[in-house]
Design goal:
This protein has 561 residues and is α/β, with parallel strands linked by helices. Among the domains are: 84 residues, no CATH class; 177 residues. Helix content is 15%, strand content 20%. β34 and β35 form a beta hairpin. InterPro entries: LRR_5, LRR_dom_sf, Surface_bspA-like.
């Protein structure tokens, strides 16, 4: 330090004392003219100065400065490592060059010039500036302009700005609010990575969201505007608070690797129909992601790298399939993990094949085409609940030959029938709409007909996020505890080998149904009386217990007296 001081004084660069006073009439300050004047704390500049050269006041601990009102240009790193807390930049300045105020560790407040057009690399790096409101007319924001600024809380970028270079605000851990320009087309790499952003409105003009753009932020919800065609690698990586992602349009083509990975609160995600390329690890370690809606072709899901890991979508339970193409038997999507499959596309005529879905327990067909044929290849030895909301063409005859059916609900009026249920490994309950024509379906007798058939189908699964909800189990609820139902179930299982016995016993079944209703009524009355007796008993016990407590309290009070 002493050598540096000796050098600067001997070289005549620094005036004696603590003040640099620029002579009146000076128009420009040369490059490095007052560099390393380490004893100076005040700068007085006349209004005749129009330009300041590169490194002119580099590493000067200046605490007080008033710039020339007629200043036009400030060179590279002109005030780097200065000590002032506030700076007003004159309106004549149109460009803030690289590292102009870099390392000004006390700089809190900046008044930017009204005619500013561009701001360049690390201009306000390592400062403690709390707010940057850029003037209208700004066109360009450079690389890491606020590097390592942990105090920046708010940034407003005008609509005139068309280019924001990658990493511009990365690492600003205090940044909570950003207002983006409406005309911007690309949000570049790591633009807001590591900030504290909780909300961000992405302009409708944006087409590309770059790699790591919003990674490690505090976003809770995000809407992807309709013109976005690409979401880059790690775009929302480790957004721990992110709960909701909405895709507003249908132009998105590609979602990169790990784009939504480690989003620990994300419960539901939709993949739009326009997608042609989705990395299979897009949601890796999203440990509460229970429901995925797929509107695109499953072939869009691809692996990158050399390993084919099935560690993705590990907690997925419900798949809502809305694609226009049937499920391909061979696909990269981890469909074998799902428990509930909902097919929701009235254009499909078949659902495809799912032979690897060993956890599958529920299939719901929502508003299918009248040409739809239920003919998937299914996993052997599983037990299914099947619900179909309206009439379809039919089932292939042996579709359930290796499957057991727990509950079968069909809300259509008719079907091209065969023995698809009779040929299953077994079944428990068969429910149809009251409007269904016939007393049998799939070669077996119907257990129950109801006017509220569609209300028994768990449509809600499609809209509700998984949170311990019991909605998928609704298919087990519609059974009525009448002997008629039990009788018909027993008849279905016992007589599945022959239709003649079913036809011969149909009249007896009706008689048994009437008797069953009477028996059911008697049993119900007995249960009601028993419940009343139990309630009365507990009321009686409560009164006795209370009177005993009252007497004990009274005894205690008397003792105290």
């Amino acid at each position: 330090m002493l050598c540096l001081l000796f050098y600067t004084l001997c070289a005549g660069r620094c005036p004696p004392g603590q003040t640099i006073r620029i002579p009146e009439g000076t128009t420009s300050i040369a490059d490095r003219q007052y560099e390393y004047c380490v004893t100076v704390d005040t700068l007085i500049m006349p209004d005749t100065v129009t330009s300041i050269g590169a490194l002119a006041f580099d590493t000067n601990p200046i605490k007080k400065v008033t710039l020339s009102k007629n200043l036009i240009s400030i060179g590279y790193a002109a005030f780097r490592n200065a000590g002032f807390e506030e700076i007003v930049i004159p309106d004549g300045v149109t460009v803030l060059n690289q590292e102009t105020f870099y390392g000004c560790s006390s700089l809190k407040k900046v008044t930017l010039p009204k005619n500013l057009k561009s701001i360049h690399t690390r201009c306000f790096g390592k400062t403690i500036v709390e707010e940057l409101v850029f003037p209208y007319g700004l066109q360009y924001i450079g690389y890491e302009i606020t590097e390592e600024n942990r105090c920046l809380k708010r940034v407003v970028i005008p609509d005139s700005c068309t280019s924001i270079i990658f990493y511009a605000f990365a690492g600003c851990s205090g940044l909570q609010e950003i207002i983006l320009p409406k005309g911007i087309k690309a949000l570049n790499e790591s633009l807001f990575s590591g900030t504290a952003l909780r909300n961000c409105t992405i302009p409708d003009t944006v087409e590309i969201i770059g790699p790591s753009c919003f990674s490690r932020t505090d976003l809770k919800t995000i809407s992807i505007p309709p013109k976005v065609i690409q979401i880059g690698k790690n775009a929302f990586y480790k957004c721990w608070a992110l709960e909701s992602i909405t895709f507003e349009g249908n132009n998105l083509k590609e979602i990169g690797q790990l784009a939504f990975s480690h989003c620990g609160r994300l419960k539901r995600l939709t993949f739009p129909s326009s997608l042609v390329n989705v990395s299979m690890d897009v949601c890796e370690e999203c440990n509460v992601l229970r429901t995925v809606v797929i509107q695109c072709d499953l072939k869009a899901f691809v692996y990158y790298g050399d390993t084919l890991s099935y560690g993705h979508f590990t907690e997925l339970k419900t798949l809502v399939y809305e694609s226009n193409t049937p499920i391909p038997e061979r696909n990269n999507f981890s469909i074998f993990r799902i428990q509930t499959l909902i097919i929701n596309n009235s254009n499909l005529e078949s659902m495809g094949d799912i032979p690897d879905a060993y956890r599958l327990s529920t299939i719901v067909i929502v508003d299918p085409s009248s040409k739809f044929t239920f003919s998937p290849s299914l996993r052997k030895d599983i037990t299914l609940n099947i619900s179909i909301s309206r009439s379809i063409k039919g089932f292939t005859e042996n579709v359930f030959e290796n499957v057991s059916i727990d509950t079968f609900i069909y809300c259509g009026k008719s079907i091209s029938d065969n023995s698809f249920l009779k040929n299953s490994k077994g079944f428990k309950k068969v429910i149809t709409s009251s409007a269904f024509r016939g007393e049998t379906i799939g070669g077996v007798k119907i257990s129950e007909k109801t006017d509220q058939c569609t209300q028994l189908i768990p449509f809600e699964v499609k809209y509700q996020e998984e949170s311990g909800s019991e909605e998928p189990e609704k298919t087990n609820e519609p059974e009525k505890s009448s002997p008629a139902t039990a009788s018909s179930n027993n008849n279905n299982q016992d007589n599945s080998g022959g239709n003649n016995e079913e036809n011969d016993s149909s009249k007896d079944g009706k008689g048994k149904g009437k008797g069953g209703k009477i028996a059911g009524g008697i049993i119900g009355a007995i249960l009601i009386l028993a419940a009343i007796a139990v309630i009365a008993f507990f009321i009686y016990k409560y009164k006795i217990h209370k009177s005993e407590n009252d007497s004990e309290e009274q005894h205690v009070e008397l003792s105290l007296v």
